[in-house]
Amino acid sequence: MVACGGDGTVNAVARGVLANRTAALKFGVLYTGTSPDFCRAHGIPTEAEQAIAVLRAGAVCEIPVLTANGEPFFCSLNLGMGAAVAASANRLRPRLGDFLGTLWSVLREVVRGRRYDLKVNGVEIRNVAHALVTRMPRIAGGLKIALPPLADDESAFWFARDVSRFGCLRIVWNLYRGRPCGELRILRGRTDFLSDNPVALEYDGDPHGELPVAVSFAPRRLRLLVPHSPFLVTQLKHSN
Prior knowledge:
Blueprint: E1 2-5, H1 7-19, E2 28-31, H2 37-41, H3 48-57, E3 59-63, E4 66-68, E5 71-73, E6 76-80, H4 81-112, E7 116-120, E8 123-134, E9 138-140, E10 143-144, E11 154-161, H5 165-177, E12 183-188, E13 191-194, E14 200-203, E15 206-210, E16 213-217, E17 222-226, H6 232-239
Parallel strand pairs: 1-2
Antiparallel strand pairs: 3-17, 4-5, 4-16, 6-8, 6-14, 7-8, 7-13, 8-11, 9-10, 11-12, 13-16, 14-15
Helix pairs in contact: 3-6, 4-5
């Protein structure tokens, strides 16, 4: 099964693949959106001819999939400013592009300086500027966190707390360079996120209500079509 579109289409089709009774079903992507973080993370080309070459002769990579309250997500789940950034960036990207649309939205939320108190499996983490759960380093619009290798049953919980607005700007700068910043914890199995106050929830580029949320793994892996090697799509392109 192939998804042709942006993040919303890719996520919807991928969820359909996981829900399909045919466990051997493969998933491929022809990306036409504005922020191809999923494709970049898995080495899937966004140029149409090269992407078609991967669909024809790519390798199958079975990737673990995280879920939020039982619904699969394929990039990152963001707590706090992520929902506002996503809503703003989705409006701005068609005019400003992926990088500038995301950057402007992030800076606006940094200036607002909102903070959140979270409970992660009952442990309180106070004065959080932003937090996210993911298995891939790319967040959105060029932002990247430095991730160690993860086992198939592990996810990464990244957060920034007790930082000023200026401190947030330094973190944003480091995220654009993919350098270590903030705090990182490795999660295993189910993790519950709660808050005594409203905290917005966003994943895969769209708002999804508020906390609480339970993050765990889907019972099935996604059988994703990817290049055999970085040189595959070039070789196939010249052979056609």
